[in-house]
Amino acid sequence: MNTSNITNYKPKDFAELLGVSVKTLQRWDRDEILK
Fold first, then answer.
1. Domain of 20?
2. pLDDT per residue as tens digits for the range 1-35
3. Positive or negative torsion for Cα 13, 17, 2, 26
């Protein structure tokens, strides 16, 4: 995944874009899925 444009999104917006919850994004971040 190209993460360079993720910084343009607020977590809520990015969560909506992916169709997941903000909590899911936080879990992914903790589990380093997005790294």
1. 10-34
2. 555 555 666 878 888 888 999 898 888 888 887 66
3. positive
> How many domains does the chain divide into?
1
Q: 1 Cβ partners below 8 Å, 6+ apart?
A: 34
How confident is the model at residue 33, as a pLDDT? Answer: 73
Question: How far apart are the C-alpha atoms of 4 and 21, rounded to whole Å?
Answer: 21
> Does the residue 27 lie in any domain?
yes
The tokens describing 15, both together, are 């969560």
Angle at 20 between CA 2 and CA 32, to 5 degrees: 50
Domain presence at residue 3: no
